[in-house]
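Why do we care about 3D structure at all? Because function follows from shape, and shape follows, mostly, from sequence. That is the central idea of this module. The next example makes it concrete: a single protein chain, its amino acid sequence, and then its structure expressed as tokens.
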Amino acid sequence: MIFGDPYRFAVWVDHVPQWGEPYKNGLFYLVINGNLYPGDVRTSTLSTDLYEIIDNDCALMSRPRNDYIFQLSTEEAFKQLFDLAYPEPSEEDEYPEQVFDYCIPSSSVSSFGGYFFAVASDTSLRIIGGVTEHLVKDKNEDRNIWENINKPLLEDITIPKDEIIKIMTNVIEYADSLLK
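And the structure:
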């Protein structure tokens, strides 16, 4: 089922019973500006991805407000939100505080190298993110390593809060019926 408008923002969830029982496996995607995340076919453990996205800590649910970040350019807003969640350690602060308030967590999306965030104004929710790293073959060993993408394509869409609330309410109802 697709919840929302896939040409703007949607959550696409489909249970595929043939992919395993007793676990609820299937397809899980965030669809932003017509682009799918993750960008390939992956088996999702729906109980994990659905739980993450409907949890009260997910920014699609909590809709954290920050008028300053909301007004920034796409690149600067993404950088600020990424740095809040994943700050670089330094000599002075080896373990900097991480702020996950703006994160849209999804195991399926993050395993594809995707990072997405949401930040609210008084009437809207702005969703920003993209794939910032990918797996490449390590030249010296028989394994893959994560490599940063220098200039990632960042998605940016602003949705009225009432529309996001409707989308997420429908996702919650679907999750409740599927996972009971």
